[in-house]
Each structure stands twice: as structure tokens, then as C-alpha cells.
Write a structure and sequence with these properties.
Layout (H helix, E strand, L loop, with lengths): L7 H14 L3 H14 L3 H12 L5 H18 L8 H14 L3 H13 L10 E5 L8 E2 L16 E4 L2 H10 L7 E7 L4 E2 L15 E4 L3 E7 L7 H13 L7
Antiparallel strand pairs: 1-4, 2-7, 3-6, 4-7, 5-6
Helix pairs in contact: 1-2, 2-3, 3-4, 4-5, 5-6
Length: about 250
């Protein structure tokens, strides 16, 4: 399964988040319910339920939706959702606490503590850039960010989604052609905190970072490319972004 920003359920959730930012909570709730009603697979149900849950007005209804979120996350049970489990268990525990069920609250706080962020993703992994590199070359941290001037990156970033790497290549600085390399981590890596459990729960883009080098083992030529119009919209959003990179 590959996260797709063009997916209709994802688009509805993004629209709902935009309404939330504008303080239009009734409109946001309506969009999230629409996303839930249009969801057809476990990942879409998991995503929509996550947002519907936070618009419930009482602990019992919140609990029902958080447990629904958990139900579908367990069905998905892969690296797109695994990092969401601690927060799901925490939300369920808080609902039980509010309802006076301290035994179930304790149980779910313990589940939260045990849901450690162990990454088991075996790839293959990709890195998008405009640099002209060769098989065997090492990609290392300590370079300037592609998205924020004067920021030295303490990590090197990569993804298990070829289309995501292609998107990164399209946004990368430089005049070279877009390149997507197949890479192998040479050390430990972690979920990219810039996207994990941010707008969307879990790590739907399977994005990671490491302080150790990435070894180039190949290159791909085919991936889904965004239109020039869509790329320009993303560049404008990046230019206007006031958020800081967690690096």
C-alpha cells in the first residue's frame, strides 16, 4: 500500500484539517464523516476514524471512535501505521479515565508504553535528488537542506515509496535531472519526525532518517510524476512555510 495524496479520502481529510485551522469545526467534522463514509479499505477507515474521533463531544463517543481507529490500525498492521499505536492507546486510556474505568485506563497506558517504535521496514528504500551519483557512492548527512536555506541537515532522509522519492527529487535544488536512487542504510534509522504522527497518524509515507551513510545500490527510471502545476503549488507552500525542520 502506498500513501497517495490524490486519494479521495486523503483529500477530504486534508480539506477537513484546513477547516479546523480556520476554526470551522462543524464543517471539518462533516468532511471527516464524509471521508469515513467513502472509505473502502482498512487504511482509509483507520485514517478517517482518527479524525472523526477528535470531533466527538463526550468521552463515550470518543472512546468508540478511538477503538474503531485501533481496530483498523491492527488490520493494516504495517509500517504506515505502527508509529500511531502509542497515541491510539493513550487516547483510549484517557477516555477510560474520564469514564471512571481506571482498570482499563491502566491497561491501555501499559499498552502505550509497550508499543515501542520498533521499525521493521525492510524496504526497498529510495532517495530522490538531482545529484549525478554512481552505484557504490555513499550519501551522507551534513549537507544544506533542499527546502530551507542555511539549514545544515544532521540526518540523511529516505523513503520506502518510490513516488515519494520522485517527489523529493522534483523539489530538490540544482539543475540536474531528477534522479531516484535505490539505497541501503548502513546503520540504524528512525521514523522521520517531520511527518510521523503530524498531519496524518502513523508514518503513511514510510519516511525515515539516519545519521549513518546510505549506500547507492541502483537507480529507477519510472515513478509517478506530479504535474508542473501541482509542483508549483508545493513550492509555494514551502516558501510560505514558517515551520521548522526537526533535524
Amino acid at each position: 500500500m502506498e500513501f497517495n495524496p490524490a486519494n479521495n479520502v486523503v483529500k477530504l481529510c486534508l480539506q477537513g484539517m484546513a477547516m479546523e485551522e480556520q476554526g470551522k469545526h462543524a464543517e471539518a467534522h462533516g468532511l471527516f464523516l464524509q471521508a469515513w463514509n467513502e472509505a473502502t479499505d482498512d487504511f482509509e477507515k483507520f485514517t478517517a476514524a482518527h479524525y472523526v474521533a477528535r470531533h466527538q463531544s463526550n468521552a463515550a463517543d470518543k472512546l468508540n471512535w478511538h477503538e474503531t481507529t485501533l481496530q483498523y490500525a491492527l488490520r493494516v498492521n504495517d509500517n504506515t501505521v505502527n508509529s500511531a499505536f502509542p497515541s491510539i492507546y493513550s487516547n483510549i486510556a484517557k477516555c477510560y479515565e474520564a469514564l471512571g474505568d481506571l482498570a482499563n485506563a491502566k491497561k491501555h497506558y501499559e499498552l502505550e508504553a509497550s508499543a515501542t517504535d520498533n521499525i521493521s521496514d525492510n524496504g526497498p528504500f529510495y532517495h530522490g535528488t538531482r545529484a549525478d551519483l554512481q552505484v557504490g557512492d555513499l550519501l551522507t548527512a551534513g549537507r544544506l537542506s533542499n527546502y530551507h536555506a542555511d539549514v545544515i541537515m544532521n540526518h540523511i532522509y529516505f523513503t520506502a515509496q518510490a513516488n515519494g522519492a520522485g517527489f523529493a527529487a522534483a523539489l530538490a535544488k540544482g539543475n540536474g535531472r531528477e534522479r531516484v536512487y535505490i539505497v541501503e542504510p548502513t546503520g540504524n534509522f528512525e521514523n522521520d519526525p517531520n511527518v510521523t504522527d503530524k498531519k496524518f497518524p502513523g508514518n503513511p509515507t514510510r519516511s525515515y532518517r539516519t545519521k549513518d551513510p546510505l549506500k547507492i545500490v541502483g537507480e529507477i527510471e519510472e515513478w509517478v510524476r506530479l504535474s508542473d502545476e501541482d509542483l508549483q503549488k508545493f513550492r509555494e507552500k514551502l516558501a510560505q512555510s514558517k515551520g521548522e525542520i526537526i533535524n
